[in-house]
């Protein structure tokens, strides 16, 4: 069964750092692009970042202003999001999502991990 | 950045009724538009891609139309499990963007 499981969320102080992870199973991870999307409390979905299957192509939302870094380890079937200089407005559920082959839309999603930025 | 504006914000309908959701883009996205369904506590689900193609396993009651700047998601007859929030998303230009969502609620 195709599955994505996020982990690494938690409580972090403003200005702190956190790395969230996404473990993939049930498909050939190295053949697919991946994304991070978040949903702040009471808000809609916000696309954050894209990484191609080989990590050669990476894009970010303008709002991240260089604070977040996406990466992947195809040998470990894992996707990562390193988040630095965290702010209260980064409080959200963070989802990883697989990109459809040839079409790139997000066709498989994890259930999310919650990040809370608060003192 | 392309802004997607969804309307209405909330749609109050009864099971069996037809739902029409709108998504308007600030500039042309061609046909590079998707629709997702999201229920509280669950993972979002891809419904429609490239404006009008149903994703794997999506029932025929869901259909998408449009191109350029105006798109519509239609649910022909609402089932109880269809009450949720629906988002459009464009992949025409980086950064990708979502609309703010339309909540379909039970009347």
| Biggest sheet details of chain A | 7 strands, mixed
Q: Which runs of chain B of at least 5 residues are low in confidence (pLDDT < 50)?
A: none
Strand content of chain B: over 45%
* Element order of chain A: H for helix, E for strand: EEEEEEEEEEE
Q: What is the N-to-C succession of helices and strands of chain B?
A: EEEEEEEEEEE
Counting DSSP E segments of at least 2 residues, the number of strands of chain A comes to: 11
- Helix percent of chain B reads under 10%
What integer value in Å does the Rg of chain A equal?
13 Å
How many angstroms separate the termini of chain A? Answer: 39 Å
> Which class do the helix and strand fractions of chain A yield?
mainly beta
Our estimate of the beta-strand percent of chain A is: over 45%
The gross shape of chain A turns out to be globular
Main sheet: strands, sense, barrel of chain B: 7 strands, mixed
Please state the average pLDDT score of chain B.
Answer: 97
Amino-to-carboxy terminus distance of chain B = 35 Å
Total strand segments of chain B? 11
Q: Helical content of chain A, roughly?
A: under 10%
Content-based structural category of chain B: mainly beta
Query: What is the helix tally of chain A?
Result: 0
Low-confidence stretches of chain A: none
Please state the average pLDDT score of chain A. Answer: 97
Question: Would you kindly provide a written description of the structure presented here, covering whatever features stand out?
Answer:
The complex is a heterodimer of chains A (119) and B (107). Chain A is mainly beta. Chain A contains no helices and 11 strands. Chain A is globular and about 40 Å long. The mean pLDDT of chain A is 97. By secondary structure, chain B is mostly beta strands. Chain B is 0% helix and 50% strand. Chains A and B meet through strand 5 and strand 10 of A and strand 4, strand 5, strand 9 and strand 10 of B.
Q: What features would you highlight for this structure?
A:
heterodimer, A: 119 residues, mainly beta, seven-stranded mixed β-sheet, 0% helix, B: 107 residues, four-stranded antiparallel β-sheet, globular
């Amino acid at each position: 069964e195709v599955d994505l499981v996020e982990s690494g969320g938690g409580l972090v102080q403003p200005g702190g750092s956190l790395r969230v992870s996404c473990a993939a199973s049930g498909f050939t991870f190295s053949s697919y692009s991946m994304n991070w999307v978040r949903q702040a409390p009471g808000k809609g979905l916000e696309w954050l970042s894209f990484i191609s299957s080989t990590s050669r192509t990476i894009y970010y939302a303008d709002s991240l202003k260089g604070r977040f870094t996406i990466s992947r380890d195809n040998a470990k079937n894992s996707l990562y999001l390193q988040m630095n200089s965290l702010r209260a407005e980064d409080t959200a559920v963070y989802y990883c999502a697989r990109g459809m082959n040839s079409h790139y839309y997000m066709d498989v999603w994890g259930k999310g991990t919650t990040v809370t930025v608060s003192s | 950045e392309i802004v997607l504006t969804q309307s209405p914000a909330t749609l109050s309908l009864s099971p069996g009724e037809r739902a029409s959701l709108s998504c308007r883009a600030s500039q042309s996205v061609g046909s590079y538009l998707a629709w997702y369904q999201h229920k509280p506590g669950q993972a979002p689900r891809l419904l429609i891609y490239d404006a009008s193609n149903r994703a794997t396993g999506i029932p025929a009651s869901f259909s998408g139309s449009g191109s350029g700047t105006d798109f519509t998601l239609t649910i022909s007859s609402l089932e109880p499990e269809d009450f949720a929030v629906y988002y459009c998303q464009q992949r025409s230009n980086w950064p990708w963007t979502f609309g703010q969502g339309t909540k379909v609620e039970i009347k």
